[in-house]
Design goal:
Blueprint lengths: L13 H6 L6 H5 L10 H13 L8 H14 L7 E3 L1 H12 L1 E4 L2 E6 L2 E7 L4 H4 L7 E7 L4 E4 L5 H8 L6 E7 L7 E6 L1 E4 L3 E8 L2 E8 L6 H16 L4 E7 L8 H8 L7 E7 L4 E5 L12 E5 L6 H11 L4 E4 L7 E7 L5 E10 L15 E2 L10 H11 L2
Helix pairs in contact: 9-10
Length: 398
Amino acid sequence: MRNISLILAVISAFSLVSFYAGRKSVESLVGEKTVAPLDLTMMWKVKDRLQQMYLDKEKIDNKNMVYGAISGMVASLGDPYTVYLPPKENKSANEDLAGEFGGVGIQLGFKDKTVSVMAPLPKTPADKAGVKAGDLILRIIDKEKNVDKDTAGMALDEAVTLIRGKVGTEVTLKLFREEQKETFDVVLKRDNIVVPSLELEWKQEGSKKVAWVKLYKFTEQLYTDWPDLVSKISEEKTKGNVAGVILDLRNNPGGYLQASVLVASDFIGEGVIVKQQSSDGKTESYEVDKSRRKLLSDKLVVLVNGGSASASEILAGAIRDYGRGKLVGEKTFGKGTVQQPEDFSDGSGLHVTVAKWLLPKGSNIHKDGIIPDIEVKYKPEDKEDMQLKKAIEVLIEK
């Protein structure tokens, strides 16, 4: 879900081959597969002008120009989720999916083509400062790094790079929130960010106990943590008085699609959890893992909000489509496309939108999100978590 700012004009991928091939013709490089010759004259003219005229010639770096050219080519598609990541940015992306990185604890996305907060991660500087899912990030200021930059037209990975920094240093974000009329600044001190995959807490409601499962993100660690958690719930059930399970997907920005299928497989007996439909019309189905199915008889409620995105929406949507449980909270983020990552030998990477995903009943919720069965709006003035309270009520009612 990342992109980077352009360094050169938008060009074709084959211009990069030319870059390293002594400006040979495209036809000689790609042979009969070339549909039409590409005129790279302007690219070379711009590069020559830079070498001749640019004031600080020490900053002219061919490698950076190549990275910029690739980035420009990918950005020409107009898809903020199809991105080329130079080595530094790609390293950050891989750390993010692995579940550990440095920064302020914000998952970024786009809202109306503006860099926005998909989710503040729990117990992080952003969360403690009151940053909310849906906040628009209009400007990033870092005095120590001499950064004061508007985010208009900024790609996600550039925003990530600017927000992350040395632990203990500060970054200021200028935010806009829909319910407020004016922008406001939030100063965040960077920290080591470790994202747990999940947490389990037992809520006592009269004589009943409720398993409140907070799923933070669908990371690699979830493949180990989820089966362990299910075992703990199953063990507690043998003692009796367990009313059911609340899956809390609020502010969960997604992650690995297969991890969401893993979780869904413990609640849904059989069938397709999600389908991927590629540009050539081919469809790949991800079905219930029948070796799981450990919690089929347990009552279930799912909590969602505007920070629930991607793999979270797959899980919530499958539970809704199969009528397996009720959704409580607010409309989800609305990300329904699939990116395939590829790492290259120089450390850079490419994330390509290769498909859209479809819920079991065939709908794609990209940009639309999922409306919960029971809407409960978050209100900052509430002294308790009213969304969780409602989820417990729904779970224990007969």
